[in-house]
Write a structure and sequence with these properties.
199 residues, alpha/beta, Rossmann fold, seven-stranded mixed β-sheet, two-stranded antiparallel sheet, 5 helices, transferase, cytoplasm
């Protein structure tokens, strides 16, 4: 697929789309009332349940490195308060699909309500199945975002990615981008970050 003038579009050109999505979807609406005064601080904020809403600069980095195309089918693992799911929905647009999964049922319900308030019906949040990472779909996911740290690269989740797709996820204290090329997975380190553990 080529852009105007026959040139291939640079995925990093969507960086401004990430910034715009973050301006449109105020983090404050996805925080507990006692944390809303801190919404614009660039640090993780507690959601309860031992979980946090990641700091905005980290979320921006992950979304930019995910290179989310318009119309993509995206899985958001560890959707928490629904903020990342809503941001992904804004990036894929109405022709896309986003599924957020959250292991804590109460948090999943609250996050789903937060997401619904953004009026993006092509995105939804559901409780994750305990002991199962991700959710398989025919043809695989074109993009997967994971917002909690796995102890190792999770093969079961990588196998849910479509050919040509990519995953951004933390493993222990290192953030990775993984691209699938047929049966080959290409890994790149993005730096050191702190996340809550993937359960």
């Amino acid at each position: 697929m080529t852009g105007e003038g026959g040139r291939r579009p640079d995925p990093l050109e969507r960086a401004d789309d990430v910034a715009q999505a973050m301006r449109d979807l105020d983090r404050r609406a996805f925080l507990p009332p006692d944390q809303r005064p801190h919404a614009h601080e660039d640090r993780p904020l507690p959601l309860g349940h031992g979980l946090t809403c990641s700091q905005p600069s980290t979320v921006a980095t992950m979304l930019r490195r995910l290179h989310v195309p318009v119309g993509a089918r995206v899985l958001d693992v560890g959707s928490g308060s629904g903020w990342t799911t809503a941001l992904l929905a804004r990036l894929v647009g109405p022709r896309g699909e986003v599924l957020g999964l959250e292991l804590d049922p109460g948090l999943a319900q609250w996050g789903a309500g937060n997401l619904a308030a953004t009026r993006q019906p092509w995105a939804r949040i559901e409780p994750a199945t305990p002991g199962v990472l991700g959710r398989e779909v025919p043809g695989g996911w074109s993009r997967v975002l994971v917002s909690a740290a796995a102890p190792r690269l999770p093969d079961a989740l990588l196998r849910q990615v479509a050919d040509g797709g990519r995953v951004v996820l933390p493993v222990r204290t290192t953030l990775w981008v993984v691209e699938r090329r047929g049966e080959t997975f290409v890994h790149r380190r993005l730096g050191s970050y702190a996340f809550v553990p993937l359960r």
